[in-house]
Amino acid sequence: MRIAINTRFLLPGKLEGIGLFTREVARRLVVRRPDDNFLFLFDRPFDSQYIFGPNVEGRVVYPPARHPILWYLWFEWSLPRVLRQWETDVFLSPDGYASLRSKVPTVMVTHDLAFEHYPEQISGMVSKYYRHYVPKFHQRAEEIVTVSEYTRQDVIKAYGILADKVQAACNGVRPEFGRLSAKAKQAVRDQYAQGKPYFFYIGAIHPRKNLERLLLAFNAFKAKSQSDTKLLIAGRFAWKSEGVRRAYENSPFKEDIVLLGYVEAGALSDLLGGCRALTYVSLFEGFGVPILEAMWAEVPVISSTVSSMPEVCGEAGLLVDPTKVEEIAQAMQEVDSDSALRERLVEKGRIQRDKFSWEKATDIVEASLAKAIR
Q1: What residue ranges define each of the domains in the chain, with the CATH number in brackets?
Q2: Rounded to two decimals, what is the model's pTM?
Q3: Of 310, 289, 284, nearest to 24 (Cα)?
Q4: Which residues is 16 bridged to in the sheet?
């Protein structure tokens, strides 16, 4: 079989949710299927670390697709030509895009439909592109894989897709996430938080991640508790993040808030393992990978009652209404002050985390590839 995969999110030092899914699933497919040929399609010069086996060919397809006009050119003109010339049997696109002009059987992975729920957070040509093409992509693909049951139901309802065409997979975690010893935890706190305990947020910073309310909740928590616990934020400033910057600058507890920027995987696992709790109170998630990472790091989770997050958390987290600052602050105070609660949440996480793995995700994708060809 000749399997082409859209790998344009495999960017060294910049892997986030979609890139991690692409890397982990593509790598496993290559190992599982040594008799098949794979074509990895990049939109810029690529790192050889992503050529996972002798049965993989990497190819750069121009133009670099990082703008709606360039997305259109890449997916509707350049990509169909390459797929046809390579005599592709099936095309896997892990980033929620497809090609309307290609006739090759297609499996598309949808991570979320956030733009449908929060259209005001996407502006200009990007919004127009999503609204025009994303429904068509879902109709076009022979098979669709989502990263959660919540997103599966969202796709079915939003676009009228037949249920048996959409399969729910999941995300997994990188092996570096694990429980730290008490000594290692203190070393992390000494390095990043002046030796103090800290809440931790991982992820890009934009409106859907709800960082502005998290900062306000931290202010309320500090004012009420007099705790010395800090808040560390690891993530790049993405779009429409001005409100977060203002909330940070105006915080009366600014000296206890640390903006770390983008953090590499090795340091990230240490930071997560050393925290008092993960505070991940997003307004909307297709899955919420940091929640699962926290379970493997064996730290408590504070998350949201909306979208996929209850599905991922199960009983392993305190869930709050992400629009209510006082609920977030109260959960922070409970977790900060109650060591027995923290240990109960960690124990629940040890059970919950086994529901999700990259092997399970690859199983679903592999079955969908076979079904798409049939």
Answers
A1: 2-172+357-373 (3.40.50.2000), 182-355 (3.40.50.2000)
A2: 0.93
A3: 289
A4: none
